[in-house]
Amino acid sequence: MKVTDHLKTAKDTLFSFEILPPLKGKGIQSIFDGIDPLMDFKPKFVNVTYHREEFLYKERENGLLEKIAIRKRPGTVGICAAIMNKYTVDAVPHLICGGFSKEETENALIDLQFLGIDNVLALRGDSIKTESSFRPHNDGHEFAVDLIGQISEMNSGKYLIDDIKLEPTNFCIGAAGYPEKHFEAMNLTTDLNYLKAKVDAGAEYIVTQMFFDNQKFFAFVDACRAIGINVPILPGLKPIKTLRHISFLPKFFHIDYPEALSKELLKCKSNEDVQQVGLEWGIAQSKELMAAGVPCIHYYTMSNSEMVRSIAKEVF
Ligand code: FAD
After folding, report:
1. Tag placement on the chain: N or C end, fewer CB within 10 Å?
2. What is the pLDDT of residues 4-19, one digit of tens each?
């Protein structure tokens, strides 16, 4: 079932979450172990992230360096199929532009349809460590809007090579939004206009980047509505768990902590202290979003379901 159908038929705010594929070599049980504790809150869909290749340099016997591509977290599509097989939830694979030609994208989408997967979250992806900025595949997409365009074309029966119409796919397409602006965007206005372009190209709902200040989310939703973005907007939340998160999350995800939160975080001396602050903040944030009538709260587990469970227990 499509994410948008779940949202349409929901009576209350839905609970959903995102998981990462395990590091290569770990089995599917590690995924189930992360999902099981969250099933009590009846998620209607579970997102699975996609991770691009990274490049390593390995010294050969002759002393020369060989550049090797590895994917540390493969398996997004297989994990989605395994989740749909084991639980009565829909799986939403993330699909990115980076590293994919248009034909590889088309083939990946065909595989998803064969597996009965009707949902995709369409993203550009970030640059890899060896690039200073995002570089698309030579025959790939530069922006998420172009990927969304390709999926929409397939939904109307138009594939890459054929002039004749083929069997249409049936994907519900989600896109990413940034209440605090995407870090490369010139300003929030240009970013919102590009977000509108994604919706016009076929995105049917938006999932936001994590944020810690609900007022920024509410302002973002208002700004979206003001320029005619009328699709559901799902807030994304991430509980802060460790001392390392305090500086890592703003640096990596380009987000700010509101002052009231930073004051509490500054007092923390241990991971346990941070966890307590993160828990209280996550519960308060979730309750306020729910009271405001958001369609769904989407939690980023980042391979750690424990805190999401503790928050959900108080909220759902
Ligand atoms: P886009 O919408 O293409 O935007 C990228 C930048 O280009 C923005 O600054 C935008 O303003 C600008 N822009 C957009 N269109 C145009 C245009 N036509 N012309 C000029 N500028 C334009 N990354 C992963 O690798 N794997 C994942 O699984 C993953 N999951 C994510 C899930 C969510 C909910 C979110 C919020 C992000 C996720 N990301 C993931 C990270 C995401 O790939 C990065 O944030 C990436 O830098 C931008 O992706 P996007 O789809 O928002 O890009």
Report:
1. N
2. 999 999 999 999 999 9
Q: What is the architecture of the domain spanning 3-315?
A: Alpha-Beta Barrel (3.20)
- List the Cα angle 299/216/274 in 5-degree steps: 50
Q: What percent of the chain has pLDDT over 70?
A: 100
β-pair type (233-237, 205-210)? parallel
Please give the single-letter amino acid code of residue 189.
Answer: T
Ligand 1 mutation target, pool 48, 96, 143, most atoms within 8 A of CB: 143
| pLDDT over 90 (residue 73) | yes
Q: pLDDT at position 164, please?
A: 76
Nearest residue (by CA) to ligand 1, atom 11, is: 191
- Tell me the two tokens of residue 315: 């909220």
CA 298 to ligand 1: nearest atom = 34
